[in-house]
Design goal:
The protein is an all-alpha fold. It contains four helices and no strands. It starts with a helix and ends with a helix.
């Protein structure tokens, strides 16, 4: 039977997934705010755009600051 560490793969293989880095995250957040919120406002209305933006911001900040 294989050990648990062999099943997970090496540390390098797990680290090799695609990441944006700090400034990539900032660019993603700015892009979502400048493009995503006006589009959501036009399609769904002000309340849905504000609630969706707040939920998305909370989710992204939670993911980016989790350790």
């Amino acid at each position: 039977m294989a050990s648990a560490s062999a099943k997970r793969g090496s540390g390098k293989a797990r680290k090799a997934r695609f990441t944006l880095g700090r400034w990539g995250n900032v660019a993603l957040l700015v892009g979502l705010v400048t493009i995503g919120l006006p589009v959501a406002h036009a399609l769904f209305g002000e309340v849905v755009a504000l609630l969706g933006g707040a939920m998305l911001l909370g989710f992204l900040l939670g993911r980016w600051t989790a350790r």
